[in-house]
Design goal:
This protein has 261 residues and is of the alpha/beta class. The chain has twelve helices and ten strands. It folds into two domains: 196 residues, 2-enoyl-CoA Hydratase, Chain A, domain 1; 48 residues, Lyase 2-enoyl-coa Hydratase, Chain  A, domain 2 (Orthogonal Bundle), CATH 1.10.12. The strands form two sheets. It has a six-stranded mixed beta sheet, with helices on both faces. It has a four-stranded mixed beta sheet with strand order 4-6-8-9. A hairpin with a 4-residue loop joins β1 and β2. α1 packs parallel to α4. It binds 4-(N,N-dimethylamino)cinnamoyl-COA.
Length: 261
């Protein structure tokens, strides 16, 4: 598959695929065409049995993504948004990916860029990262889940601060608030993300998918319903050959060999 606005790379031995947003001259602004390519790449990697984790990053060192492409959006009308239901599937595709995803954020993750990072399962950030929802400065508001996901990550007060004033969180603040899982110097971030991806991909892929589904359920339901979901998933895990293998390998004091069954 060939792309114009993203680059993809697969480390077959590690089981990790990387998608790199590739419009550095526009701070990787998320045009519709670019998002279509991201979506297509996720389709490919989700269906590739050898891939256990997808890393999403941005090229150029200055931005993960500066947001949706403002130049492309500027002439849209309410009627057009309403008619076309301007929440196109390509924006939610990464959130719907069943395999684990990591956003590796160097520089700015603003507006749709922050929203795209939050659609991934884990965010890791360079020490120069800046997260923000500055749509208010355009007299807009976040349109790809920002008000909802950010509030769940950082709480109401910080989400309101960011969305109402446009203030950005730096990497340390993002780490402290729980938006980000780990931070690293900018030139070491991809190594960290790929190492995490390799670690995730080295586990049973079916078990990873079950974990992802269960953690995400915490965002969609009450505690007791979520615990019930987890219990059912836990019970079902015993039907996996991999779970039998994992426990046998522990008892026999040897490395496990996953068959993803
Ligand atoms: N869109 C288009 N072009 C952008 C851009 C963007 N979001 N961000 C940067 N660029 C372009 C700049 O226009 C400039 O282009 P030229 O002038 O060279 O042609 C080039 O990238 C370099 O930008 P700067 O000179 O500004 O670079 P700096 O490093 O000084 O600053 C920056 C980088 C990212 C801090 C700054 O460019 C900036 O503030 N950008 C805008 C940030 C912003 O307001 N983001 C929110 C956009 S609204 C939805 C899905 C998503 C969304 C909504 C709905 N649906 C599916 C319904 C999301 C909305 C948004 O993200």
């Amino acid at each position: 598959m060939s792309y114009e606005l993203i680059e993809t790379n697969v480390d077959t031995a590690a089981g990790v695929a990387t998608i790199t947003l590739n419009r550095p001259e526009a701070r990787n602004a998320l045009s519709n065409a670019l998002m279509n390519e991201v979506s297509a790449a996720v389709d490919v990697f989700e269906n590739d049995e050898d891939i256990g984790c997808i890393v999403l990053t941005g090229k150029g060192g200055k931005a993960f993504a500066g947001g949706a492409d403002i130049k492309e959006m500027a002439d849209r009308t309410y009627a057009q948004n309403h008619k076309e239901n301007f929440v196109t599937a390509n924006w939610e595709r990464i959130a719907e990916c069943r395999k684990p995803t990591i956003a590796a954020v160097v520089g700015y993750a603003l507006g749709g860029g922050c929203e795209l990072a939050m659609m991934c399962d884990i965010i890791v950030a360079a020490d120069n990262a800046k997260f923000g929802q500055p749509e208010i400065n355009l007299a807009l508001l976040p349109g790809a889940g920002g008000t909802q996901r950010l509030t769940r990550f950082v709480g109401k007060s910080t989400a309101m601060d960011m969305c109402l004033t446009g203030r950005m969180l730096n990497a340390e603040e993002a780490l402290a608030s729980g938006l980000v899982a780990r931070i690293a110097p900018a030139d070491e971030l991809m190594d960290l993300a790929l190492e995490m991806g390799k670690s995730i991909a080295s586990k049973s892929k079916l078990a990873s998918m079950a974990v992802k589904e269960a953690v995400n359920t915490a965002y969609e339901t009450t505690l007791s319903q979520g615990v019930m979901f987890e219990r059912k998933a836990f019970h079902a895990a015993f039907s996996l050959e991999d779970a039998k293998e994992g426990m046998a390998a522990f008892i026999e004091n040897r490395p496990a060999r996953w068959h993803n069954k």
